[in-house]
Amino acid sequence: MMKQFFKGIGKIRYEGPDSKNPLAFKHYRASEKVGGKSMEAHLRFSVVFWHTFRGTGSDPFGGAVYDRPWDEAADPMERAEDAMRAAFEFITKLGTPFYAWHDRDIAPEADDLRETNRRLDRIVKLARSLQRDAGVKLLWGTSNCFSHPRFTHGAGTNPDPHVFAYAAAQIKKAMECTKELGGANYVFWGGREGYSNLLNTDMKQEQDQMARLLQMAVEHKKKIGFRGTLLVEPKPKEPTKHQYDYDAATVLGFLRKYGLYDDFKLNIEANHATLAGHSYEHDLTVAASEGMLGSIDANRGDYLLGWDTDQFPTDLYSTTYAMMVILKHGGLRRGGVNFDAKVRRGSFDPVDLFHAHIGGMDAFARGLKIADRMSRDGLLEDFVSERYAGYKRGVGRRIMTGKATLAELERYVLKQGEPEKRSGREEMLENIVNRYI
Ligand code: XLS
Ligand code: NI
Ligand code: NI
Fold first, then answer.
1. With a 6 A CB cut-off, is 310 part of the ligand 1 pocket?
2. Is 75 exposed, middle or buried (CB count within 10 Å of its CB: 0-12, 13-18, 19+)?
3. Ligand 1 atom 5: the closest Cα is on which residue?
4. What is the rounded average pLDDT of the residues 38-44?
5. Ligand 1 atom with minimal separation from the 269 CA
6. Nearest of 35, 34, 17 to residue 26 by alpha carbon
7. Residue (of 319, 245, 254, 231) closest to 275 by Cα position
8. Percent helix, strand and coil across the chain, each rounded to 5?
9. Is 54 in the pocket of ligand 1 (CB under 6 A)?
10. Can you tell me which atom of ligand 1 is nearest the CA of 50?
11. Domain residue limits, the chain
């Protein structure tokens, strides 16, 4: 008899916007076509292993509050297997096509690396058969090089090359496991790749080290024939005071500087963008307008709190603006909408995990539909292209094609005088968006 971890909860179905059933989708219908493509193919939803199956509800003021039925066994490997089975029961009932993990979420670390890797192999084998049975795929794997005490001063940016070597070994193995499970991407989030005090830090040395680690990862990817995309996930702070991968623009500059630009794309997370003082759509636009948007971590921060609260995304403006950027730049391709989000400490029942994901999926489904309608009507696009149309002709064209000089433009102004004032029409445009929402 297979253990059941979410007893009494069946497959989550689409019941439409009028349904009052909290365990039904009101807007997300996997097979429904939006602009010629199914919602499932547009959104490529993914459940994260860490928050959903390894989260305990702990915070700086108190320990674990979730009593998860998959965490009951005495043996840590039996707990790991139970958690993996619970994950697949959950994902199958919810109906997302993808999931994502850190190495240490799926298999607990042992006393030495050899045994730790053996544990990983055992769990990867189980995951492989569960993936096959459920038809669920791995959106990305990643390595947790930030929780263990050895990474207190960073992983790739650690002043001690022995720690660097440990991170390298971990990444090697995690990338191989990701390949084994057919992962579509592999993510680098540099949890402690930053500093807390400049007095003990050689910033340039640390960034050179980080680049070396990423260069080695590119080499290893080629060596083992891993076909997924390598992604860097920017975040400005937390846990360190200052993280080197501050935001999308900073990471793009870093990748360019170190010759890594063609081998990576970005994974953009909402709450990280807002911690950096940007909106989600800002960082998505920075990445997407260069063709560097690889995937997205979907969540939401709290504007009244200054940390990474990782709440589930329910704000329709945010999901709409995000989907506008994504549709405009041709979709998520190999990426997905990955719920890097957790239920609140007080939401400790397993059913809360369903409510949270259903809400996030519905919010993105609505964002997708609204963004698709807006883009088909084209009002906003037309406004923007008209706003810059001057650069397609006359003096604007000469500027953009490199023909104009400062002297020529001086003559132009002397002849033409003052430019005409033109409103940016922000309020009108916001009202247009509201009409669709
Ligand atoms: C933490 C990050 C992390 C990455 C994966 O803030 O969002 O969860 O997505 O390491
Ligand atoms: Ni985060
Ligand atoms: Ni994330």
1. no
2. exposed
3. 189
4. 98
5. 7
6. 17
7. 245
8. 50, 10, 40
9. no
10. 8
11. 13-377, 391-436
Q: How confident is the model at residue 1 (pLDDT cuts 50, 70, 90)?
A: low
d(CA 128, CA 170): 20
Residue 388 has which token pair? 């810059």
Which residue among 51, 102, 278, 282 is the active-site one? 102
Q: Which of 105, 245, 297, 308 is catalytic?
A: 105
Kindly state if the Cβ of 340 falls inside 6 Å of ligand 1. yes
- 88 alpha carbon to ligand 2 midpoint, in Å? 23
Looking from the CA of 408 toward its CB, the CA atoms found within 13 Å total: 9
Ligand 1 atom at minimum distance from 235 CA:
6
Nearest CA to ligand 1 atom 10: 189
Look at the block and give the residue holding tokens 């199956």. Answer: 53
Nearest atom in ligand 1 to 146's CA: 10
Mind listing the pLDDT tens digit for each residue in 79-103? 999 999 999 999 999 999 999 999 9
Say what the pTM is: 0.97
Q: How far is residue 108's CA from residue 50's CA, in Å, rounded to a whole number?
A: 12
105: annotated active-site residue: yes
User: Can you tell me the distance from the alpha carbon of 389 to that of 265, in angstroms, rounded to the nearest whole number?
Assistant: 31
* Burial of 299 from C-beta contacts in 10 A (0-12 / 13-18 / 19+): buried
Using one digit for the tens of pLDDT, what is the confidence trace for 234-278?
A: 999 999 999 999 999 999 999 999 999 999 999 999 999 999 999
Return the CATH number of 13-377, one of 1.10.260.40, 3.40.640.10, 2.120.10.30, 3.20.20.150.
Answer: 3.20.20.150
User: Is 297 a pocket residue for ligand 1 (Cβ < 6 Å)?
Assistant: yes
